[in-house]
Amino acid sequence: MTRAEDLAHRLASVRAAVRSAAHAAGRDPGEIRLLPVTKFHPVSDVGILRDLGVEAVGENRVQDAVEKATRYPDVAVHLIGQIQTNKANAACRVAAAVHSLDSVRLAEALNRGTALAIERGQRPGGPLPVLVQYSFDGDPRRGGVPESGIPELLDALSRCSNLTLSGVMCVPPVGSDPAEVFASAADLRDRLATTGKRPMELSAGMSGDLGDAVAAGSTIVRVGTAILGPRG
């Protein structure tokens, strides 16, 4: 089996799983976007996925996002991993969205980086959509901002004219109940949507827990291993 055939089979299986989860939750499958996560996989896989109808992928590392976005500019690259502030400028040049905003410092760095990219004509898409990475357990080692830190981050975002708050992202801590974590993140998403008076995304669910995520209201499911196979 060729790599293209393997990815086609895996992608079709995950798409079917998302549809099944949506129907089980009484949701329209069209409300849920599948974001294949290509981290640690070759650039060529992005091209194969594009030919299979994939319009966006997720990347953890800024340098990999730059490489893949440069090679395949017609595929949107979402940054889903932690971003060091010294890499914010590079991130802003290529990211279609950042799912891992978790500090005032990073918000300010992304705001400056986006302004610079727009000024230099490196970002024709305008403001950068960002999702707040919600930390369910407040463990700083895993990234994310706890509930107590949300007001300060939202206040900072209100001053960042080059960023657009687009929703909430979460990753369940090891040993936690994914359904409980996703429900908590969905509640935060709903509160932000009410305050902002516009729809907000919930980026939640991976290969092993996408069913719980879809049931909780996820609109973006990030799937790596089930589509791309074991990491290289």
User: From the alpha-carbon coordinates, what is the Rg to the nearest angstrom?
Assistant: 17 Å
Structural class: alpha/beta
Q: Give unreliable regions as ranges.
A: none
How is the largest sheet built, in terms of strand order?
2-3-4-5-6-7
CATH superfamily: Alanine racemase
Give the CATH topology. Answer: TIM Barrel
Helical stretch tally = 9
Please state the average pLDDT score.
96
Dominant shape: globular
- Cα distance, first to last residue? 18 Å
- The CATH class assignment is Alpha Beta
Major β-sheet annotation = 6 strands, parallel
Strand content: 15-25%
What is the N-to-C order of secondary-structure elements (H for helix, E for strand)?
A: HEHEHEHEHEHEHEHEH
GO molecular function, one term: pyridoxal phosphate binding
Family: Belongs to the pyridoxal phosphate-binding protein YggS/PROSC family.
Cofactor: pyridoxal 5'-phosphate
Organism: Corynebacterium meridianum
Task: Characterise the protein shown here.
The protein is of the alpha/beta class and 232 residues long. It has one domain: TIM Barrel (Alpha-Beta Barrel). 44% of the residues lie in helices and 18% in strands. The protein contains nine helices and eight strands. The protein has helices at residues 3-24, 43-51, 62-71, 88-94, 104-119, 150-157, 178-196, 210-216, 225-228; strands spanning 33-36, 56-59, 76-79, 95-101, 128-134, 163-170, 201-203, 220-223. The strands form two sheets. It has a six-stranded parallel beta sheet. Strands 1-8 form a two-stranded parallel ribbon. Strand 3, helix 4 and strand 4 form a beta-alpha-beta unit. The longest helix has 22 residues, at 3-24.
